[in-house]
Amino acid sequence: MKRWRSLVFILILGAAFALSGCGNKDNGKNEAGTNKGSTATKSSQDTLILGRGGDSASLDASIVTDGESLKIAHQVFDSLLEYKEGTTEVQGSLAESWNVSDDGLKYTFKLRQGVKFHDGTEFNADAVVFNFNRWNDPKSPYKFEGDSFDYYDSMFGPDGKRVIKEVKAIDASTVEFTLNQPQAPFLQNLAMTSFGIGSPKAIEDKKENFKNEPVGTGPFVFKEWKRNDSITLEKNSSYWKAGLPKLNKVIVRSIPDNSARFNALQNGEIDLMEDLSPDDLASLKSNTALQLIERPSNNVGYLGFNLKKKPFDDVKVRQALSHAVNKQAIIDAFFAGQAVSAVNPLPPSLWGYNDSIKDYDYDLDKAKQLLADAGYPNGLPGVITFYAMPVSRPYMPDGKKVAEVIQADFEKIGVKTKIESPEWATYLDDAQAGEKDDIFMLGWTGDNGDPDNFLYTLLDKDAIPSNNYSYYANDKLHELLTGAQQETDQGKRADLYKQAQVIIKEDAPWIPLVHTTPLLAAKANLKGYVPAPTGTEYYSNIYFE
Amino acid sequence: MKSYILKRLLIMVPVLIGMTIIVFSIIHAIPGDPAETILGQKATAQSKEALREQLGLNNPWYQQYFSYMGDLIKGDLGQSIRTKIPITKEITPYMAATAELTIAAMLFAIFFGVNAGIISAWKQNSWFDYISMLVALIGVSMPIFWLGLMEQWIFALKLHWLPSIGRMDQRNPVESITNLYVLDTIISGQWNQLWTVIKHLILPSVALGTIPMAVIARMTRSSMLEVMGSDFVRTAKAKGLSQFIVVYKHALKNASIPVLTVIGLQTGALLGGAVLTETIFAWPGVGRYIYEAISSRDYPVIQSGILIIAFIFVMINLIVDLLYAAVDPRIRYR
């Protein structure tokens, strides 16, 4: 009997909890009200809460390649060079100035003096040498189990084919890089977040744990990481850029669901959100307490053909299908106008973009004609497996819906497709193996503002099967792209890339679909946020009005 | 009773071993390469191969299984492939977050479900009966995802009564001691914080608790109706006991076995719903921990995470069975 009474007691207690929540309207209202008030007045707010879709995988910039990890690392580490805010133009950061030898093989950097790592140790030439040796030497004692320096390998060549031969400290504030061969985008590459300089002492002391407690020279000091929940950064009060950062604290929260994230922004629980769904654009615009921030377009969403399989090894078939996609209709329907129709793999904002290339126009008769020329007067036989992305990406918010529209268009020229959307990890695996899919949808966001990062990385024969999921190989193109890597004159490089785009257009290994403008939303009183085309920006200029 | 408990505990061993085999085979049957997902789309082929080698993923599956079991017997759940942190250490805060959420959800579900069911049975065919059964019907058929977003829209966005995401106010964080924030704030006597933490709990636990509440309400009602018609209730009434005592004391006790069963089953089922709720409300719980692990093919985390959940499920069943035995002594002699 007693047991029974205690159960009843627990139930009543539970009810009290539940009711106290529902009943106390005034209290809740007041609190929300004061929140609002505090942000509207000339603000003393010095904490930014940012909401994003996913968590970081690691906080050590050099061992990751995913955007979510790099965003945080970017606040903690400085590289020798950096991109000017909002662009991909290179300027000095930890290196104040530099000299390049005439043969393009020696780079001498003058380092900024008086800079300290967050742990109080001095930043100097030895620190730079330490970091580059760590990335360069496959047997480095500071390459911890399971780590790989993928960006170092892909930007400066894998072991055995390294671009960087040696990094040497001339004196405490001078570093000399000797290269094995000239590399045109060398400075562009050095400015990437992945080559942020970490404190050698912290790496030595923390070892494996450095990836959870990073120490750099950046504007913010790493404070705490609650996985899948939040990362807290605090102001580096002795940051070398005078007067920065303006904020005292930045809390980056992972809120996976797009709508929930937007709800949290509207409710004042976060100040800034990434990846606004185009569907929410109208409701954002009607809310005067919020503002829209547009990230410069630096990506491409595309439909790739699997050239390993028949009949997609036939260029006529690929061209025929290229005529059968109504890109503008897709943009109008699913991108709320926040995208432009793509002609080339390269976004138009990049130098080297060939604007004299004409796109395959949407013309179903021409498509049928080309199919007939290729020997398929009645359309393609069988059913084509069409891989549509199961996840939302900045370059493709809803892959499945877009695929359905394309499917309907293909049907009109006698090409039957079945859409498949396996889970993301499987999707990437399958696309890379090229066994199951006939056509697939994917995209890319540029890392460093160099055309090489799109054209060579995605379409050169060297990139099979790493990122060239189309298995597209063209020797002429390979010659142009590798030639452009060795050329140091940007004008000449631009020419080579323009020629390369002509070949790619003719061969049509992809149907480039869109270049999107990724959207962010923030409270109206948040100022100084300048979105970067690479997707990683400093939070140091942000403040609240 | 002791031997009954012991017998039940022993049965758990083969069940759990069976679980490890099933989970292990399923995970290894999922296509998708951990190295690819961990290192990302932009990683090189060599580094992926090196990682696979390091993780022992190139070994035959039975070798992987036995080395996993070997560690498990030593109490070592292994370490996450992605973060390199021992799982036993990593999973604790997630478990606490989920525990807090499920307890709150169950308290909500049990209180409202049981009472609605009792009153509906007591006042059968009254307006209360019709309405509560209609609500229960809607409750069971409501997708958690939709319900969660609706709650956010109404109670956070429109009315500003409650926060829409997370476990606490990030501008004024709670110091974690046990990771159960309700408990932590009570221990440290921060009553304002306690209120904030409870406010954060309300929307997700209502979203998560709605389906169990509806199921419990319907089960309580039908079970009560059955008991209310029986002889001993008539006797009790004839003795002149008040209606309240008859219903809550005599009838409810006898109607409670099936209700306990549903409560147990629903608590287990909550663990499934928790993934969705945790996603919508950005609740850093074990559901999302496993979900993230699945997306990145973090085998050890998936294995251990599911194993722990299975363990909890089995434990809940055990507790329910023991409660039966306590409520109805005949059961333990069967």
Describe the protein.
Chain B: Belongs to the binding-protein-dependent transport system permease family. Chain B: InterPro entries: BPD_transp_1_N, MetI-like, MetI-like_sf. Chain B: This is Peptide ABC transporter permease. Chain B: Residues 95-324 form the ABC transmembrane type-1 domain. The complex is a heterodimer of chains A (545) and B (334). Chain A is an alpha+beta fold and 545 residues long. Helix content of chain A is 33%, strand content 20%. Chain A has two domains: 15-24 and 39-241 and 519-544, D-Maltodextrin-Binding Protein, domain 2 (3-Layer(aba) Sandwich); 299-516, Dipeptide-binding Protein, domain 3 (Roll). Chain A is built from 17 helices and 21 strands. Chain A is globular. Chain A starts with a helix and ends with a strand. Chain B has 334 residues and is mostly helical. Chain B folds into two domains: 2-73, no CATH class; 93-327, MetI-like fold. The longest helix of chain B is centred in the middle third of the chain and has 38 residues, at 191-228. Chains A and B meet through helix 1, helix 2, helix 5, strand 10 and helix 8 of A and helix 2, helix 3, helix 5, helix 7 and helix 9 of B.
Q: What is the β-strand count of chain B?
A: 0
The CATH C-level name of the largest domain in chain A is Alpha Beta
CATH topology of the largest domain in chain B: MetI-like fold
| Individual helix count of chain A | 17
The percent range for helix content of chain A is 25-40%
Q: Strands of the largest sheet of chain A, in order across it?
A: 8-9-10-1-11-19-12
Question: Poorly predicted ranges of chain B (pLDDT <50, ≥5 residues)?
Answer: none
Total number of distinct structural domains of chain A: 2
Write the CATH architecture name of the largest domain in chain B.
Orthogonal Bundle
User: Helical percent range of chain B?
Assistant: over 70%
Summary?
With 545 residues, chain A is α+β, with helices and mostly antiparallel strands. Chain A has 17 helices and 21 strands.
